[in-house]
Amino acid sequence: MNLVTVLDLIRFGHARTRPELTEYSGLGRTIVAQQLDLLLDLGLVGDGRLAPSTGGRAPRSVSFRAEAGSLLVAELGATSLAAGVSDLNADLIVQHEESFDIGRGPEQALERLGEVLEALIEKSGVHRASLWGLGVGVPGPVEFSTGRSISPPIMPGWDNYPIRQHLADRFGLPVWVDNDVNLMALGELRSGRARGEQSVVYVKIGTGIGAGIVCEGKLYRGAQGCAGDIGHVGVREGSEVVCRCGNRGCLEALAGGAALARDGTFAAASGQSPYLATVLEEGREITGEEITKAAQRGDPVSVELLLHCGRLVGEVLATIVNFYNPALVLVGGGVAAAGDVLLAAIRETVYRRSLPLATRDLHVYFSPLGDQAGLCGSAAMVTDELFAPSQIARWLERGSPAGMVDLTTTLAT
Ligand SMILES: [Zn+2]
Fold first, then answer.
1. Cβ atoms of residues 61 and 110 within 8 Å
2. What separation in Å is there between the alpha carbon of 317 and the centre of ligand 1?
3. How far is the centre of ligand 1, averaged over its atoms, from the C-alpha of 242 (Å)?
4. Per-residue pLDDT tens for 227-277?
5. How far apart are CA 140 and CA 137, in angstroms?
6. Where are the alpha helices (DSSP H) in 45-162?
7. What is the pTM of this model?
8. What span, in angstroms and rounded, lies between the C-alpha atoms of 402 and 231?
């Protein structure tokens, strides 16, 4: 526990010298010195240059050695596959993204992911023995304890699929799996705009819609792992629109990227939007991205579609803001790239529908990490697990968690 306290102070940049470590940890000088020696021996911390003196002898600074190990990270989206190799600070050394339909099923998706990761390991020049773990996000509910996706609405064939086992067998690494939006929230918490924040809601508006929750400075997964899954909240009583989950009137079915594409296609075919009709005539499919482009070029129908999407998301967010009182709401995902029209509609609805006290210091911004958030979050998930007090104790003596596939299993007590 003391070791992790000292490590985290250094890892998150809160303390850079021995006197700072003693002050911020609340531990005695001798204990700090012992833990620091251990971390130096492990190669997790390096002794750096002399820090500026505050009077007297200048203390030597210490820093986290993010290069001590490497991580494989991946994010499967509804229509994309992204992967990378990162250091222990979630900085990506190499990365790759390609189109991939998640509906092709787990065998094909994980086979392709395996090939992409193999190529990335090669390209990064990272030694296999220095790979410490693998983190992957998927676009559906994940039971975090087992690494299985459970009844995912947009992932046919993935129900109860042992994603962790599949990847652990292939790479011989401890593997953690989570919902993609949880990982985006975690990525923003560690490397983006949410850094240092205690209460954050991250909303992803892509093909689907979901949210990740940061509570007391940590990712909050809930009892089973699906906290924040707001895409299937019912927003329109009596709606005729059937969602992929089988219910009617879900937020995702009315405001997600697929909904924009459907409504935009209708507007093109019915002659309401000459701009979108031209898109169809040119042989292109109307996607959320096309609607965004059309709105930026002034197509009033596309602007209205984005406003509608923003208002619906804003209504659900207002409920969350009233219920949870976050300090920060970050909006990300493919449709979020639509820009200011969407964000303005979300903000306006949230502020209008929430309690004044809940919005007094509330900020609503775009996710600055954008499509990097998921991969950064995958890396942060793995380091959080590897450096958790109960885990680090299991690999401390070996000096590295490399190859310890069973780290993901909970110890019998
Ligand atoms: Zn639904």
1. no
2. 17
3. 8
4. 998 999 999 888 889 998 899 999 999 999 999 999 999 999 999 999 999
5. 9
6. 106-124
7. 0.92
8. 37
